[in-house]
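seq/struct pair 1
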Amino acid sequence: RNQMKSQSSYQSLTTREWSQQYETIKRQIQSKRSQGQLFSTLECNGIASVISGLDSSLEAMAKSPMEHDITASELVRRRVLIDNLKKQMLSPTNRSISQPLSLSSSESTSDRGLAMRQLDVMKQQDEMILDLGEGVDRLHQQALLIGEETKVHVRLLDDLDSNVDMATAALQAETKHAEKIKESSRVCYMYICIGVEIALIVLLLIIALH
């Protein structure tokens, strides 16, 4: 399988193609580690080339996230995944060898014990990396939920502003209506006073004539 892609071809990867490339190289590394095998120089060079390409592609996505339709939290998650691959390849248990590892009958028991301890360390590292990956995934999901909740809160605030504007307009309308009623009451009171005065004048005239 040809893993020596040019840097320009990696920079043109889509987010889905990036994930596929990452899963392929991760499975290759985990397969070697689970079998307790070491990488040859050629394999190390090929894996390093793929990791470097994925790193370059991630930098291109970070420069134009809208173009690649990728969020900031997803960029952080992928950066953690790439860093984990680099740490695995830098681990002493992954050093390259030119010949397959073999234990002759002349090798001491302590060497065999060291090899077993190395395998145990590799397994522990795999478990830690798996836990870290799951933690990053959970963090990504929480970030998405927070984003959705933020959108809901923004909509609620917009609705609240609209309701406040409507209530203010209704209050102003009621105030104008109350002022009109107040003016009408004043006019009505004035007419009653005039009517009473006219009645008194008429009554006085009648009394004067008699």
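seq/struct pair 2
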Amino acid sequence: MGSILNTPKNDYSFLNDQTIDCVIGESIKDDSGTAIWERAYYDPFLVQQLCVGLLSMIVNFGVVYYHIIVPVHPKFQLRFARRWGMHIHVLSGLIEIFFGFSYWFVPGSVLSTWATVQCIASFIHCITAYYQAPIVFGVQAFMVPAYVFVVTIKWICAINLLLNPLCYVRSLVLFNILSIYAWVRVFVAT
């Protein structure tokens, strides 16, 4: 093992597939016994993203629990398409949360499959989010553009992960962007 001074930095770039996270992911792609968390390069950016991800996981559980115990607003139930759009949105979001969180713990040999499922769930989640954008809660003049902006960034991050499925930072960033809605729910307290 080399000196810490010789360790490459995790120069995260959208188009760069030679960042340390991609190199490490590529090195274990055929390993059925090694998970990402065992080989990850824990630089300050990654540690920060992991802390946000762990806090977000707690918040996500709270938001899902809230939606289980509190009936949805009638505006999501009035039309058949809105009702099914909401069901598909929630299901794809739950799948994305599961695969995004567990990405760190699965063997390297299934990372590409895990990332692909996370991306497909994210694409479905984005499509249903765009469909719901006109009826978001809050000040419409602010919330609709902000919601569409975040969903578009999420779409871009999902494409990036789909193109680089072995890059663990990209999976974590996509997971954290999904959690923005949960954080909005916490701060708005609705």
